[in-house]
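G., the chain you wanted modeled:
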Amino acid sequence: MLVVVASVSGAPGASTAALGLAALWPGRPGLLVEADPTGGVVAARFGLAQEPGLASLAAAARHGGHAGGAAPYVQQIPLGLHVLVGPGAAETAAGAVSVLSGQPDVVARLAPVVVADAGRLYAASPASGLLRCADAVVLVASGSTEYLDHLDTRLPALRATARPDRVGLAISGRSAYTPQEISGRLGVPVWAQLPTDRWGAGVLAGRMTGQAWTRTRLAQALRALAASLAAGGQPAHAALEVAR
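Predicted structure as tokens:
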């Protein structure tokens, strides 16, 4: 299963959500793939080396040397999660993501569950190829009017790239609008509401530690979303609400 997590504007926490979904996937953690063409952040946040990672996988795929397994390219972070880190340099990252978006089956076959962080989806993003074969596309967005307006203008292009029935929203932080109002306006289901949670987000950003983070409100919301995705490929067209 391939789940793509992305945003369209601002910094609503797409990387945090992708990490959490992979770490909290039911049964066993998924594999996090940093496919952000503007550059990866996981290596810097968790003190990892830049290689092995996305660039070496892309080089192998480009020359036909990829044998199908993830083991030569992954590293592990303290969350007990295997990650395929993206290069920090945008030019290198964009080149690697472009190669792998042209061969999305390579990414999808890396593990039973792959969660790809595609970063911000701008026009002609090199990560767009991953959307075409994704089992689910989770768009993380702030619930403010400004960001919802921006999302509204980008959705037609995203619908033309990914299958519309596989696209859903994760609304980050508080919003003046209910999930039903957002879904009705944008024509896309709200799959989750991600609460503002300093501790949960801090652990997923590498700033804090502690196993109890899995009991935070953010972890609860991400666990519910992961379970719903795992059960049916996409959540029901109703918001997965968490306590505010």
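Strands lie at 2-7, 31-34, 75-77, 81-84, 114-120, 136-142, 167-172, 190-194.

Shout if anything looks off.
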